[in-house]
Design brief:
Length: 246
């Protein structure tokens, strides 16, 4: 699968899909698509810690739609015990370029080390951007993901459920009747997107990181994501309500 659809440099389009439409969406897809399985599992837990400047500069760059922007995160693949430090760059033509390095599982997720600092500096220099002096943990997103890849390698579809975003002592979760699909491709409209359009679904503006901050940080404006957030997110709750049920 990695050989057929690495798609580290790509366009990415997002769709919010009612769970009851998922069987129709993927009906007959077994002829042209494969599902990622590791150790007999086809669904995996992810945890991403996003770092930002003290004034949330990368969030505001995204909110304002800056042509050149980036995100910094540490992503842990919980079920496989793998950790990656990632710099996700958005270029002038809307192309996403993700640079990453693997870290030891015990490496900190919420702060830069000399190694990750150097990697960040080099990654941003390639886009003629200067790395900020200071980055702090800004939000955490946990979710479950399945991955589907076309046999020709031109399309990768990630299926995200059970999303929970955390900032400070508050949290927000995605409703269980909605699935977040991300279509990653180097080309134009894909087969899956044509099926989505036939079902009456269109691309949405949604960012896990931005939605978490907009939901949980008082005073932040996130107009570009509010419509999608209203379709898929519950009201914020204290963290202990989600983690302990009390």
């Amino acid at each position: 699968m990695n050989e057929r659809a690495a798609l580290v440099t790509r366009t990415c389009r997002k769709y919010l899909v009612p769970t009851e439409l998922m069987p129709d969406l993927f009906a007959g897809a077994e002829r042209d698509f494969s599902v990622l399985e590791i150790g007999g599992r086809a669904s995996f837990l992810y945890s991403s810690t996003y770092m930002d400047t003290p004034d949330l500069g990368t969030f505001h760059d995204h909110r304002q739609g800056r042509r050149l922007r980036y995100k910094v995160r540490t992503r842990t693949y919980v079920d496989t015990g793998t950790k990656m430090f990632e710099v996700k760059l958005k270029g002038a033509r809307g192309i996403t370029d993700k640079a990453r390095i693997e870290l030891p599982l015990e490496a900190p997720s919420d702060r830069l080390t000399p190694r990750t600092r150097g990697f960040l500096d080099r990654s941003l220099a390639g886009y003629r951007m200067e790395a900020p002096d200071k980055l702090l943990p800004a939000a955490v997103t946990d979710y479950r993901r399945s991955t589907v890849v076309s046999s020709c390698g031109r399309e990768r579809v990630t299926v995200d459920t059970e999303l929970v975003g955390y900032r400070g002592d508050r949290s927000v979760r995605m409703r269980p009747d909605v699935v977040l699909l991300e279509i990653k491709t180097r080309g134009g409209l894909t087969r899956t997107e044509r099926s989505l359009h036939r079902l009456g679904l269109r691309e949405v503006r949604f960012s896990k990181y931005a939605a978490t901050l907009t939901s949980l940080e008082p005073g932040l404006r996130g107009n570009r994501w509010l419509r999608a957030m209203g379709h898929c997110l519950d009201l914020p709750e204290p963290v202990h309500d989600l983690r302990t049920g009390t």
